[in-house]
Amino acid sequence: MSFSKQYKSSLKVIEAEEIVDLLFFRPLAFLFVKLIYPTNITPNQVTIISMLFGVIAGVSIAYGTINSVAWGGVFFALSLIFDCADGQLARIKKSGTPFGRLLDGLIDYISSFSVFIGIGFWGMDLWANPFQWWVIVIITGLAYAVQAGLVDFYRSEYIANAEGKANFVESELAEFQKEYDDVKNDGGQPVKRFLLSLYISYSKIQNAKRKMTEEETAIPPEEYVKQNTFLVRLWNLNGLSTHGFVIIIFAFLNRLDWFIWYILFFGNFWTLFIWLVQKSNDKKVEKLYQITPDNIR
Question: 54, 117, 224, 293: which is deepest, by most CB within 10 A?
């Protein structure tokens, strides 16, 4: 397999990738993947490395000097590169698991949490009222989590439909349930069992809410992809990698307060705007594909 074909095979669905991932993080991650491909290094181990760099980034930022904050940006860039590498390695080796995806998402939030804590300490001496600054940082962190969660939801739904799955929540739930049953039957790994059971419970609630609030529809996956390709690209402007790229830039400028305002103002505005557009688009498509006695036959 040629280098370019192998690189493409390491990606999810290109239309659902963030621009900064395609242009920067994933090419660098792929070079690392090519280096470790012959070894026994697993995707989950790469995920842990990503977390370590994320935590180190937060500590460096918290230290507060111009140099340490800049190094924090470097470490966070490495965290994002390794965050891309774990999935690419899993896809090339065809060794991806539901738990691996769960661990990857959990580590993303741990790394982001570490950076926000670092930003909190970084700004304490620069803000007239440190308590007020921490309140702003906490509110921003919550907004950041909501924004990232919505992007992940709609991107995952898009990818699932691109792979021919009409309901990604149900398909993911089945995959996680199977892995949980396998782990339970094997015995041991209590932490893994706990995390899987927690995610399964969350997915069941999420799936139940979707069934209660949405009209029954029969939207073909290819139609969903056609109607949502442009929207998923708009959602990606609020993706974790894009936000991370902004953090890196502001870290080198030693102006992480600008990142706070970026999330509070642009991030929230963009999330609300795209969410309203998404809901309008969903209603339009669902109306065209409502299940009736005629299309059930």
Answer: 54
